[in-house]
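Subject: design request, 445 residues
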């Protein structure tokens, strides 16, 4: 790490010692930027990194709601508006019991660079709450969402901050959040993305992150003369990103042999039947273990870490942060895995990432590979502003072009830094260049 980056990291560790995911993300990014920073010593005088690692605003708030038994529940909500250098804050809302300020900061920080890579005018933000939608009735989820939005609405807007979905925030939650925003403000504006098609959503948004991941992977593998065709693919998770990554991987000729949820994983040597997964997860909100009731030849194994021991050529971690550690990386490589694409945000631990790069595995880092979701969210914003509705094909074509461009920007920046094929360095540098240029142009703000 260069001396400027090391000084900023030491300071961050001192002041934010308890925010371990944020520190992990910041360490990876600042280490990647080292070579670039060496060539741009003027950035230190401008205090660029000091400003880059500090959110413009971090909002925390109480979310009281009443459960079906009449008991008052209180959760903790957050919105971190990290950077508006290149556009309104943009990033999802995570609903999961593990949510805390450090996790939201890590996600918001990654989002700045991801959003810059999309080439669209969106800044970086993220929010969420330690509320767990799992096991709650629709009415409880609605009351929670209404309470959450009753505080959040004053901080967001079509031209200031546009939240979207993330873990635990799907179509149902976005609908309830949007309804409450409209009710309080009286505005029918594109303030949330991932909306339903009948009230301002974009075709292709549901599929965008998973499809975009596969488009990125196809570009990356193509350079090495490889493709999805006839490859075994392992996809972790069975949520929004995982389902559509699995769908596109299969359409591109791959055979998805394993998927998971936070309890365990299924292996189906005949190829996972996605219609069963979709019915279980999207419609019935059940556990993945029920898959074997519909496909008796498949196996269910309790515990999710073991999924990485299933032999495959291509691994797509699409569940959550730090789900793939060094042992998992070793098992994947030993079993012939040659390409890894991060559908989730920071699913690989730092030592797992280092191991993949050392072993010459084609590695698509999350902020580049999963940027398709936010890219189509920005396209939803464009359609809302124009009061237009594009076709699925139109959106999908734009998504493909955006993912190709993200790959090319990452590849070029990696070359420029003397690290060809290292898309971790490439994505970080390419995103940072754009954000830092905008920050410099706008003065010390
Ligand atoms: P969903 O809530 O739809 O699905 C999440 C999946 O991951 C579920 O299968 C869930 O299992 C599993 N999971 C969640 N937490 C854990 C955990 N602690 N351990 C193991 N498995 C877990 O979320 P998304 O598909 O939207 O998001 C998945 C990842 O992709 C996240 O990292 C998110 O930040 C990232 N991402 C999402 C985008 C989007 O457009 N949705 C865009 C870019 C990135 P279970 O049901 O058991 O909880």
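Subject: RE: design request

Done. Sequence follows.
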């Amino acid at each position: 790490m260069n001396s400027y980056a090391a000084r900023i990291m030491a300071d961050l560790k001192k002041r934010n010692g308890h925010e371990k995911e944020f520190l992990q993300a910041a360490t990876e990014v600042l280490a990647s930027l080292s070579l670039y920073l060496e060539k741009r010593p003027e950035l230190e005088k401008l205090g660029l990194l000091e400003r880059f690692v500090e959110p413009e605003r971090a909002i925390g708030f109480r979310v009281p709601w009443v459960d079906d038994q009449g008991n008052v529940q209180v959760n903790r909500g957050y919105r971190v508006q990290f950077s508006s250098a290149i556009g309104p804050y943009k990033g999802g809302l995570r609903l999961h019991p593990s949510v805390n300020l450090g996790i939201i900061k890590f996600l918001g920080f990654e989002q700045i660079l991801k959003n810059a890579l999309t080439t669209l005018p969106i800044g970086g933000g993220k929010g969420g709450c330690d509320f767990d939608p799992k096991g709650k009735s629709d009415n409880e989820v609605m009351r929670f969402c209404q309470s959450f939005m009753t505080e959040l609405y004053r901080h967001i807007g079509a031209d200031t901050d546009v939240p979207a979905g993330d873990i635990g925030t799907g179509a149902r939650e976005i609908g309830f959040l949007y309804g409450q925003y409209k009710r309080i403000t009286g505005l029918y504006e594109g303030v949330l993305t991932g909306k339903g098609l009948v009230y301002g959503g974009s075709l292709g948004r549901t599929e965008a992150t998973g499809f975009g991941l596969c488009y990125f992977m196809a570009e990356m593998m193509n350079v090495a003369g490889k493709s999805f065709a006839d490859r075994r693919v392992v996809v972790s998770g069975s949520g929004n990103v995982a389902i559509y990554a699995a769908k596109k991987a299969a359409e591109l000729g791959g055979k998805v042999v394993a998927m998971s949820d936070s309890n365990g994983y299924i292996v189906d040597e005949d190829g996972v039947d996605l219609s069963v997964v979709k019915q279980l997860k999207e419609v019935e909100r059940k556990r993945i273990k029920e898959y074997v009731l519909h496909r008796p030849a498949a196996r269910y194994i309790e515990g999710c870490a073991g999924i990485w021991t299933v032999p495959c050529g291509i691994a797509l971690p699409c569940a959550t942060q730090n789900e793939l550690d060094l042992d998992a990386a070793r098992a994947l490589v030993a079993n012939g895995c040659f390409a890894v694409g991060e559908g989730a945000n920071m699913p690989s631990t730092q030592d797992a990432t280092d191991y993949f790069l050392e072993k010459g595995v084609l590695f698509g880092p999350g902020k580049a590979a999963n940027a398709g979701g936010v890219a189509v969210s920005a396209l939803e914003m464009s359609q809302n502003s124009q009061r237009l509705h594009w076709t699925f094909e139109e959106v999908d074509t734009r998504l493909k072009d955006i993912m190709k461009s993200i790959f090319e920007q990452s590849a070029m920046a990696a070359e420029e830094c003397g690290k060809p094929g290292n898309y971790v360095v490439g994505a970080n540098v390419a995103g940072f260049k754009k954000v830092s240029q905008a920050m410099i142009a706008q003065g010390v703000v």
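Residues 165-168, 170, 209, 237-242, 261-263, 304, 318-320, 323, 343-345, 370, 373 surround NDP (CB under 6 Å).
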